[in-house]
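anyone else get weird line breaks when pasting these?? whatever heres mine. first is seq + tokens for prot A
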Amino acid sequence: MSYKIVTLTRVIKICILLMLAFIAVAIMSILIGPANIGTGQALKGILYGWQEGYTGLTPSEKTIIFSIRLPRVIFAGLIGASLSVAGVIFQALLRNPLADPFILGISSGSAVGAIIGIIAGLGAVPFGVPGLAFLGAAFTVVLVFLIGRSDKELHSNTLLLAGVIVNAFFSAIIMFLISISTNTDLHNITFWLMGDLSLATWVKILFVSVLLLLGFVVIYSHARPLNLIVTGEETAMQLGVNVERTKIVLFLAGSLITGLAVAFSGIIGFVGLIIPHIMRMVIGPDHRLLLPASFLFGASFLVVADTIARTVIPYSELPVGVVTAICGAPYFIYLLRRRSA
């Protein structure tokens, strides 16, 4: 399959198109919900409801739109973007089409921290559970790098094995913690492990968006070296790329945004696996375009998945990870069969 040459103009055009798609999806998600708010009324509320003295919405409708639905939509977009970009990085550096952001065990380490926080009753403390979850993710990254780095170099196979070992260890701890949890804690733990975006707040959105954008800037600044590394590390070195430094920076940045996403939303599987593949098939493998396209399309995908999760069952809510798994599992099987063919 041939792809068009990546130019700045093409990157801007595709990003604008995907941004418009995200805005459309976001508006659709805000309009959908159990509360009966008219479409025209809701659209006017989104545009003008923030103004002082606006009377087109009742206080309860204003709360539903600006304190519940809008923060959740933006938060879902940020998490989807984080996981998608991290998936692009791990698939490229590990040269494994089945790699996802959790392949190095970051999700398990984060889950241990989150479960400890839930059991300890830190859910009522601001950033209590997410803080411990992020510390667990950071500890996992350090542990995997210490185990997987040999001769001051990062080898893909060694890192993968280190990730498998660390993941198995933390999975055992997770099972132990679940076995000693109370029924109330068990419900909260289960929702967290399957992905939960219902606790979105503007403070969390600000925190996640700042760190995500910083991580994305670092990653995107290495898009061209990443293209060269994918074609061959020796070729990249001959063209002046500091391969080891680039790999370390990208692994750490990818791990950071993965840990950030998992800490605040729980484990939402398959987003970081299927979005990079879909974008790669549509627009090509050049990371100068693939990274921003995956960022925006991943955001739209998770907003749609979360909308389905909170509306498919009346007066109830599914963990968003259930919806992404239903979408992602068949695609995962397709990738396996395609690779073995």
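and prot B, same format (seq, then tokens)
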Amino acid sequence: MANSALASIPGVAASGMAATPSKRLLSLDILRGVTIAFMIMVNNNGGPHAWAEMHHAAWNGFTATDLVFPTFLFVVGVSIVFSVEARRARGGTRAQLARHTVRRAVILFAFGIIVNGFPYFHLAHLRFYGVLQRIAICYLIVELFYLWDRRVNTKVAALVIALLGYWVLVCFIPVPGAGIPGHDVSLLDKNQNIVAWTDRHLMPGHLYEDYPAHDARDPEGLLSDIPAVGTTLFGLLAGLWLRSQKTLKRKAAGLAAGAVASLALGYFWSIWFPLNKKMWTSSYVLVAAGWSLFIFALIYWVVEVRGSAKNSVGKGLAWPWLVFGSNAIAAYMISELLPGALDLIRFQSDGGASNPLWYLHQHLAALISDPGWAAFAYSVSFTAICFVPVWVLYRKKIFLKV
């Protein structure tokens, strides 16, 4: 039963269950691993004393942490191209692939619900939005779109429509009870915006920031899925570029050129439409995609063009990222479920109640006087703990990933 569940997840390959693709893009696996490792770190950053770049921007703005989630969606987009083409080469029909896509998205969405509810599952306030849910939705829409139409120009058009359409929606559509953004209410007001208003009416009592009720909002809400699909389309376009007949050097140069163009356009647009991760603004999509392309271009150059990951030193440096990248969804779920599980283990320490993670946090803080470094040490330690079960899966050749 467990094996059949694993086999139904996007990109899964487990020993004895599915054939491994004949040629993997090593640089993409490394980028996925770096992204998921950093995602675990910033989600468990050690608390308020962590460095500013280990926190999301409070509202408008951009930090290194704000790059993590869009980079993962970017990776999903790239992976769609290689995954679909590999399955088509093995004889899969469009209808078969579409059914598999829907089933995989549903299972991934369900995983997100499990993550949100674990370990108590209070149904009255169970959150239905979330990181895995957004990945599932973007994966479903973009892969079905690619199965239906594999042309580049339609993907560019869809990306432009998503970004411009969301800009119009957020900046020009009146917010019921508040008025026109930038006129009756400030543009990108935290509470009075069309995105938050929609989520408050669709999912009252089930949002990430749910109190007070009249100001509730969710960073993975419904309407902001529109530009998030745009982020995934950026990855799809990068994947199509890498599947072209260009030389490796030209492919790396193309990724770098795309990075420069996206960053320039995104930062320019942010003058009027600010960077905002929680609302996933269109300028944020462009800037995040630009940095994702830049990092990917750098890794692609080192790994694919220079071949640095093929020597012993390169293999050693790439290994931990390949382990994380080969089981990215498993790593994420472990990192999200582990704190809840360990919180059930209660004991007395230093005259008060504690659990294993709080105990680790306290003792690292006692050993390291600088609060920022202590928080960073906790973040790295937690990520290392999560690495262990992922490494076991890697050793057993069980791979779970989107």
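btw re prot B: The longest helix spans residues 371-395. The two ends are 20 Å apart (CA to CA).
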